[in-house]
Each structure stands twice: as C-alpha cells, then as structure tokens.
Amino acid sequence: MAALNGKVAVITGGNAGIGLTLAERLLTLDPTLTLCLACRNMMKAEAARQALLTSHPGSRVECVRLDTSDVQSVYAAAQKIQEEYPRVDYLYLNAGTMGKVSVDAAAILKALVSPRAPEIFRTGEKLLSQKDETTKDGLQEIFATNVFGHFVLIRELEDVLCQPDHTSQVIWTSSQNATRKAFDLEDFQHSQGHEGYSSSKYATDVLSAALNERYRGRGLFSHTACPGLVVTNLTKGILPFWLWWLMLPLLWAMRALVPSMTISPHNGTEVLVWLSQQVPSSLDPLCKYTSRCKVWGTAYVDREKLDIDLPTAEQFYQKLLQLENHFREKYREVRSKIRGQ
C-alpha cells in the first residue's frame, strides 16, 4: 500500500464522457489528488490514463478493472482498491448503461405540441424504450450495472470509506430521466417493464438517501447528481450521429426553457466537481444536485427536491442487502480466494 500525500478519488466508468472529463477537472483543481479509474475495458482505461498524465504530468493516476454488471468483478476490484489505498475520499459512481434504446418518434412529435413539453424533454418521459438483458449472475443488466454493482462496491469498501475522524463522499451520477412512476419496489430490477434506465436512476436516488441515513454517523455521506442532457457515447447511440448535430442548435435554443440542456461533458460535470468542494454534512441528502446551463453557455449548480420517502428507501436497502447476502453466500469461495491473494 503506497503512502498518500493528498486525497483519493475513485471514478467508475472514468475512461470517457462524463467520467473522463470529471477526472480532468479534479486533477486541475487538485494536482495532489490520487485518481483511480475503475473501468470495464482496460485498454480504454489505460488510454484515458495516458491522456490524463500527458495533460497533468506528475499526477498519480491508476486503473483497476471493474465491470459493475459482474458481481465477481466487483469483489476483485474492491479488493485491489483496498490493497492500494488506505482510504477513499470520493467515490464517484458514474458507470452506467441504458440498455438497447429506441426512440418513440410519435411520442416526440406529440410532446412538441404538448403544454408539458419542457417537462417531457427535461425528463425524457415516455420518449425512450429501453430493452434490457440478463447478466451471467441472473440479474437485469441495467439494474446490475447502474445500481447493484455499485451497492456491492460500497459495501466491500466500507473499511476505506468509513475512517475514524475522516469524511468521505459517495456521489452518484443520476439523471433527469429518474421517475418514481418507472420504479416498483416489488420489481426493483424492472424485469417486467420497458423503462429500465429510468427505474435504475430513480433507484439510485432512493438508495443514496438510505445510505446517507445508514452511514453519515460513520463519516460517509451519499448524494446524487444530475449532469443534465449531455451528448456522450452513452447518449449518442440513441439517435444517428448526424441527427445529433442537426439537433444541437435546437438543444441550445431550448436552454431558455430547459436549462438542463448542458450538452457538453464539461458543463455536465459542473455539479460533480462542485459537490467535491462542499462540506458533505451541509448538503441535503433528500435533494438532487444538478448541472444547469444559461442560454449563452455558462454552467451553474441547482438543486431539486427528490420525490422519495425514507421508509421506502429503507425497504429498498433491505431488499438489496438480501440480494447481496445471496451473492456473498454463492461466491463465498471466490471472495475468500480474492482476499487471500
């Protein structure tokens, strides 16, 4: 375990888009920061690492393989992180998937003439259909990637996140697409629906509140952040590339009514960077902090009250604990071997 001169930040999905831009901005703010990119594709992670070292020579940037859709991968990554770092100050839970997304063209045309158009385009309500798949662990892929894998990671990293007389932050990349109506506590993996991404992002909002209730007494605070509508590799797959470019002027113009049209990863990461600069105990765990953008492009941070209740959050937490215990039992020998290496 190497000695540390500054703070430690772990970013899941840190090799591109929001994650990579966040890494660049954090290193610019704090050159002493130790940065760990936890990514599924190690070739892309290494390329991102080299790019960061080129732009920030002398920085400490490392990579660990993490596929949040694979429980065994989460166990292995958590063990490597604990072996390498005596503590983690910032855990950015940014890795995610939307599944196979299709756009409902008829719904878009209908939304354009709806009096609720700003709200519909802000949240993407009913505009997208997300086709899910099943992982090798038997979980819904969107749920496993966006929610459960990160939950297991937090649980496995308790020792480095909860240090005596020390404060750490868990910061979730949420979405305006997170809606309560898409989430069902009795089908929290959303195996019976077609809005898996919306359900998973609402689930992270709920889980964040539950985690804050559980861990704040031990110095660990959890908050959710929304980058707004950002054109990244995740969103580019929704529409043909040429159509995104045709739509950009419209998206910029819509900022007057929908300031969540942040568009660029730099604007989108405004809230993620801002949260790292705040006193965690001063933040409201029942609010989602959001990146916003003025018409002329200046980014700023806003917040909105989460549509959640703590009893539901606690019930969801307990259901995830039961699922986690199932996998701890299932992979008991695997975890023992990983920890014994």
TrEMBL record:
InterPro entries, A to Z:
3KSR/17beta-HSD, NAD(P)-bd_dom_sf, SDR_fam
- Membrane-crossing residues? none
EC numbers listed for it are 1.1.1.210, 1.1.1.270
**Keywords, in A-Z order:** Endoplasmic reticulum, Glycoprotein, Lipid biosynthesis, Lipid metabolism, Membrane, NAD, NADP, Oxidoreductase, Steroid biosynthesis, Transmembrane, Transmembrane helix
GO CC, one annotated term: endoplasmic reticulum membrane
User: What GO molecular function annotation could you give as one example from this UniProt entry?
Assistant: estradiol 17-beta-dehydrogenase [NAD(P)+] activity
Q: Return the broad EC class.
A: oxidoreductase
Pfam families reported for this sequence: adh_short
Q: In which pathway does it act?
A: Steroid biosynthesis; zymosterol biosynthesis; zymosterol from lanosterol: step 5/6; Steroid biosynthesis; estrogen biosynthesis
Which biological processes are named by the entry's GO terms? Answer: cholesterol biosynthetic process; estrogen biosynthetic process
Please give the subunit comment from the record. Answer: Binds to the short form of prolactin receptor.
Instruction: Report the sequence similarity comment from the record.
Output: Belongs to the short-chain dehydrogenases/reductases (SDR) family. ERG27 subfamily.
Q: What is this protein called?
A: 3-keto-steroid reductase/17-beta-hydroxysteroid dehydrogenase 7
Organism the protein comes from: Branchiostoma belcheri
What gene does the UniProt entry assign to this protein? LOC109467187
